[in-house]
Amino acid sequence: MAALLPDQFVTHDYAGDLSSDQLLAMLESMVLSRKLDERMWVLNRQGKVPFHISGMGHEACQVGMAFAMRPGYDWLHPYYRDIAFNLALGATPTDLMLPLFGKAEDPSSGGRQMPAHFGNRKLRIVSGSSPVATQIPQAAGMAFAAKLRGLDEVVVTCFGEGSTSQGDFHEGLNWAGIHKLAVIFLCQNNQYAISVPMSKQMAVENVADRGYAYGMPGVIYDGNDLLEAYNVSAEAVARARRGGGPTLLEAKTYRPVPHSSDDDDRSYRSREEVEEWKHKDPIQRFEKTLLARGALTAAQRDEMAARVAASVDAATEYSMAAAYPKPEDALFPVFGRM
To answer: Which H helix or E strand runs over 222?
Structure first.
């Protein structure tokens, strides 16, 4: 059975219930993510941080899902591009900048994890392992625990289409389908698993086509359309919370930058293709929508830009000056005290 389209899955116009303040907050989360991301690239190119992996182009599907969740109540098992997702759930720019420098105050791991291994105990964001897709069965396990405890917490986990070639993906979905768990599998399909195109990753057209094999609906949608992303996400969250079981979502999107700061994407895709997708930028698209509706003015946009720039500057300065972990803490709290 083929994957569902949004109008075959969504039963209510959730986006129509959003207030003007919520719409502006969504836009600001996306703009903040983009500017923070750009600063991280600059710091890498200046030689001040060793590595960066970007979330550019993915902002709409991440913010759409984050705003459908209850921050600090529901759980997120993120993947390495979820910068906007973390910010929309309540992480600060400093929370994300500290691990880039490996500083002791890093909320993910105290400076022990690689950058982009997001974690935040207060916000219920679970830091993951470097091998891709390992977060998927962990998310299913956490949803199983919530079910055993009689809680209505929803668990969301994210991954790219390349992760769906891993055994962890199939094991996690199988377990969630058997036990009808309140977990949402969000595939952010940017069409390249590092340098491998989607056609070399799977023999079906859509990741979401696989949902029915595990007893759950699979839904494909435009991952660069924030309002569509919010509608699909809100439906999946509502369904999970009322006991309807898991959902496999596939947001079709694109990363306009290389896989990481160590990658040269000119070796595997054309400049024409990248330029074509830049015209579909999710932030510009949502901004135009708000301006056309009168929900955003040019003055508000400029104020937002200034506020975001100041926030990114402050996070950068604070993180650069922050202390590194003490050598004597190297074995704590990873394995416990010796």
So the answer is: strand 218-222
